[in-house]
Design goal:
Blueprint: H1 14-21, H2 27-45, H3 52-61, H4 64-73
Helix pairs in contact: 1-2
């Protein structure tokens, strides 16, 4: 699909912006999650040249934003 025909609100990372605008998550967390989507896209589209030690380091040391995001949507009664 032609990117020019896609509304910015339809792009995956824009969902985080909407959540931040509505006060569901912080703007900082929205930005971190947007970067994560971008990183994921790079890894998927260029897996043959990815430095997997970098991916491992990110997975090992930079998961706090995913925990923060998950906590927002966890059932407090669960």
């Amino acid at each position: 699909m032609d990117q020019a025909l896609i509304s910015p609100r339809q792009l995956p990372w824009s969902r985080f912006e909407v959540l931040a605008e509505r006060g569901v998550i912080s703007r900082e967390l929205a930005e971190d999650m947007r970067k994560s989507v971008g990183f994921r896209n790079i890894v998927v589209q260029n897996s043959e040249v990815v430095d997997w030690q970098v991916v491992f380091a990110i997975c090992r040391h930079h998961l706090d934003q995913f925990r923060q995001f998950a906590e927002v949507f966890m059932d407090p009664l669960g």
